[in-house]
């Protein structure tokens, strides 16, 4: 019986170690700059800043842009910083833009 548990432990240990050492690789689209777009809308969105490892709020104009454009900071962090990220921060716009401003 003890031999079975020992064998099971030895088989599972490499899986545990490899999971702990896994590094999250930021997707290519998260490395692109935040692009506000070309139209005249004023939509609050979130984009990843790779060199800081944070998501920052920006105003999307409603058309154009790229995939570094998320509806929430949580989605941005999940997709671009990964679950294994230790630095999870959201940077909000410091001012009211048009009729929209939502802090917190």
Automatic annotation (TrEMBL):
SUPFAM superfamilies: BPTI-like. It comes from the Eukaryota. Residues 30-80 form the BPTI/Kunitz inhibitor domain. GO terms for molecular function: serine-type endopeptidase inhibitor activity. Keywords: Disulfide bond, Protease inhibitor, Serine protease inhibitor, Signal. InterPro entries: Kunitz_BPTI (IPR002223), Kunitz_BPTI_sf (IPR036880), Prtase_inh_Kunz-CS (IPR020901). SMART domains: KU. Residues 1-19 form the signal peptide. Belongs to the venom Kunitz-type family. 01 (intermediate) subfamily. Serine protease inhibitor that inhibits trypsin at a molar ratio of 1:1. This is Uncharacterized protein HLSG-g29. The gene is HLSG-g29.
């Amino acid at each position: 019986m003890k031999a079975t548990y020992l064998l099971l432990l030895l088989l599972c240990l490499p899986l545990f170690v490899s999971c702990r050492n896994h590094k999250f690789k930021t997707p290519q689209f998260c490395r692109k700059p935040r692009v506000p777009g070309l139209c005249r809308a004023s939509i609050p969105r979130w984009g990843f800043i790779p060199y800081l490892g944070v998501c920052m709020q920006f105003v999307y104009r409603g058309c154009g842009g790229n995939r570094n454009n998320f509806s929430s900071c949580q989605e941005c962090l999940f997709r671009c910083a990964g679950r294994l990220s230790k630095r999870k921060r959201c940077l909000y716009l410091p001012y009211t833009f048009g009729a929209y401003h939502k802090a917190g």
